[in-house]
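In pairs, describe these two lines:
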Amino acid sequence: MVLADTSKGDIGWKKWLVAGWAFMECLFFAGLLYGWASINFVLKSEGIYADLCEDTVNSSFLTYSVNNSESSVVNVVMLNATTTSSNMSEVSAKKQPCKPQDSKMALCFTVGSAMFCIGCAVLGYIHFRFGTRVTRLISFTMFVSGTLMMAFISKENPWLMFPGLSLMGTGGLPILVTNTQVSNLFLAGSSSVVGLLCGGFDMSSAVMLIVKIAYENGFSRMNMFIIITVMHSLFLVSTFFFLPKDFISKPVVKQGMESEIPEDGEAGIELLKQNNQTGEGTAAKTELPSLLSCLKQTKFITHVIWLCILQLRFYYILGTLNPYLNRILDGDEKQVSYFTDICFYIMMGGLLTSFLSGIVYDSQKRVFSDGKSQMYREIMPAVLPLALASGLSVLLSILVLIPVTEVLYLTFIVMTVYRSFLYSLGAAFLSAIFPSEYFGMLYGIMIVCAGIFSILQYAFFSWAEAYPEAPLHANIFLLCLVLFSFVHPLYLWITCWKEEKKFKVN
């Protein structure tokens, strides 16, 4: 195995090789579920569930065909018998809303995101019980099954998109979860490494944008998903050669003893070498608290509530992006396609914004490193980043209330930064506060709770479709809800200051 034979002289570049490979896995495979808006556009263009649009002009382009002589994409719009030549040009420029089709697409994303979260909890337990390698092999099987189903969706078998999206999403998340432990190889900047991995996770939604662009230029959706399936075999390289069979433990750092720790993760690399050589689980250098005691801690509970609220806000805007754009742009298909692309071009910047969230977190660790109490040193650095994420959710909730085309650019930028802070901090907080052996379980439990809560997005979607003013009312309600997320950083701030004052008095 590559790292099993690492000599002490070349530890540094081996460590970066593992981190770089982990980032590439997250970038290409981990978060494809979040590229749903691009695939939604493609599926609607192919006429998936278009048969539900009765007695109206079809709400979407039913097929795309390529004119071989001119290499241009031709939109084929099917009209019903009542369409006349006088309104033909208007129909071709703007698509008519088809609520049953939009409802099916929203339901698919709701089911997929819920299964994504539930699967995270199940695979989190498997990761805790059986280690990294078994978890990644199960993840590989699920992901490949999902992408193959997405490849073979058709108007005759539209139901394949439900298990396909669910398996693709569920199989992708363990890529992030199992790679997060790589941050333990870096004593300095571990939160930045987590942020970088989460940035790759965020940017992976752009893979679905590439599928959409390729589709518009004549490549079939089937071939694109088969290519993704074949490329995923690279996932097995790290599974068998880079990562240990079990875990990479977090190096123990005591106050005032940082200078005695080997330079930036050498201890972690040594432990990784031992695990690769023996295949055994990590031997705990200190006695671990019980998993139940971690679950019962108030800071974990408030963190879960924080993620539940903010993820619901993100899922709702992501899952309803297509009808939201149609509403803002008055059904102009070209404009909807343009802004769908712009959204995901901007979201590719998630790499930088996720890394930024990690830098903010690590800088706060340095600010509070001189605290007297361990709680103050460990938890206080998370307060500002968590509060920033809540603030971004409020700003996003305000922007979606403004029905102005030019505001869409700012909305997408805030949405990208918001998503990066949400998921980077969601993972980094658990990684920094709790034992790394429990990360998969704690992260899984947190995500499944958020997933169950995010099922409410379908209720919000149904509410928004009920009558013309309903989308405004639903978004105002979500604005009020995200204000409640400030309870988490506020609780942490109060608790840390109380604990610090006790030490100062003594």
Observations:
- The two ends are 52 Å apart (CA to CA).
- Residues 1-10, 56-93, 255-269, 277-285 have pLDDT under 50 and may be disordered.
- Residues 183 and 193 are 6 Å apart (CA to CA).
